[in-house]
Amino acid sequence: MIAKTIKYKDFNGVEREEKFFFNLTKAEVTEMELSTEGGLAERLTRIVESKDSAAIIKEFKAIILKSYGEKSADGKRFRKTDDAGVPLSIAFSETEAYSNLFMELATDDKVAAEFINGIMPSELQK
Fold it and tell me: DSSP H helical segments within 1-126, as ranges?
């Protein structure tokens, strides 16, 4: 799990600074790996090597939104949907915080690598 403190300006012009949480479980990573031909890691490597900017952006967006959630106060849960089953990432994607994070990851390889490693389960980090 990674916690990112993001500064942004909301749509009322108010400067904000909030902590956002991102995490992928072993089950989620396994599902992503097995549902991608050749595996997720191989797919990402192919995309990066091909310098396919559109595909890179699409994958980053999917990974950010798939990993976004809210940690319960007791630390037992990492909630990714609301009570109606709607992904919390939808609301997050509509904020400038998401936009700022996205731009940071899209323009800084080191930060992007740290983010990807940070959201991976510790036993799967490479």
Answer: 26-34, 40-50, 53-67, 88-93, 96-107, 109-119
CB contact set of 36 (below 8 Å; sequence gap of 6+):
42, 43
Nearest to 113 by CA among 2, 19, 18: 2
In angstroms, the Cα distances linking 54 to 44, 47, 106 are 12, 9, 11
Q: Which residues contact 30 (CB under 8 A, 6 or more apart)?
A: none
Q: Which residue has the tokens 């595909």?
A: 55
Q: How far apart are CA 96 and CA 109, in angstroms?
A: 21
Q: What is the pLDDT of residues 63-109, one digit of tens each?
A: 999 999 999 999 999 999 999 999 999 999 999 999 999 999 988 88
What one-letter code names the amino acid at 37? E
Burial of 37 (0-12, 13-18, 19+ CB in 10 A): exposed
Residue 13 has pLDDT above 70, yes or no: yes
